[in-house]
């Protein structure tokens, strides 16, 4: 089983923002993790859905399936954190969404990826995911099934004299994230591997070929493939099971 996890972080240290982050985590992470690992849905989630007349009808067979299902290990996809704050404006939709309880926010002191819609960069989130699984989900076996750093074709540039596209920005961020994963494993996290997204630039339902993640570039006009430095770096990482920090 593979889940896309987005750890929730507060905009400020206020109690209201902490409560908002708790709601976001409940809807976007615990709603999947709890039934998969703990064999039950969070009570708080069920109460909220019932209060908004959104609690689905279930049968005894549904409950039995959740109780009996076991996963061999968990795959985790991670790309970006979720930054939230307590609602400041009135909720004006005529139907219920999780954002009834919080507003998405932007950290004014944050780092951002200019090549991926200015999404926040937060390598610490990898450690926090690992610690959460360790402390709250029985330290089950898991692996980082998908992690990638988006760039666009222009920012990657053209191949150098050696024929390699120099996507050093991607390598630097991957290193920062893997340092946090290594720290988490040293602190007892039961993570056994990493898969970086992805082998070759691919089409996305959301943005077509705008965001590039591949180890190899795909020329859409000719079909030619060109290797990126990240591919060579990851091959060395896999062979040596480590890297020297920059």
TrEMBL record:
Keywords: Glycosidase, Hydrolase
Family matches, as Gene3D superfamilies: Glycosidases
GO biological process: carbohydrate catabolic process
Keyword Hydrolase: yes
SUPFAM superfamilies in the cross-refs: (Trans)glycosidases
Enzyme class: hydrolase
A GO CC term attached to the entry: cytosol
InterPro entries in UniProt: GH, Glyco_hydro_1
Gene Ontology molecular functions: 6-phospho-beta-glucosidase activity
EC assignment: 3.2.1.86
Pfam families: Glyco_hydro_1
Stated family: Belongs to the glycosyl hydrolase 1 family.
Protein name according to UniProt: Beta-glucosidase
Organism: Klebsiella pneumoniae
High-level lineage: Bacteria, Pseudomonadati, Pseudomonadota, Gammaproteobacteria, Enterobacterales
